[in-house]
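Proteins fold reproducibly. Look at a sample protein:
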Amino acid sequence: MSTHQNKGDHLFVEINEPYSLKLLISNIHAVADHCRKENLNKVLVDIRKMEGNPSIFDRFQLGLEIVKAWGTRITVAVVAKPSLINRTAENTAVNRGAKVKAFSEMKDAMEWLGVEFNNQTTGV
């Protein structure tokens, strides 16, 4: 299940479903829609409970989709299990102008994003 919550200064997204390219592309576009409707430009995405491992090609595709959907107007910090972080999607997106970065620790992600760390609001 994916959840999207407006936290006032940012959108918090949690993805608990097994990995699929379709699932993540759908969430990328949902984030853009939520940010547009709620006038937000910072997003914290938690995929630590997502099972599965995207292929290199999928990661590249996700990076391209991030640029199309978020452009330069949305800044996104993604928190993932260390074993999932290889920077392919991040580098693909950042090299094309997007503002996205992956982290293995929630506190580091929130600090980079510039939002207040609160265990109750992030579900940590």
Q: What stands out?
A: The mean pLDDT is 94. Residues 17 and 73 are 27 Å apart (CA to CA).
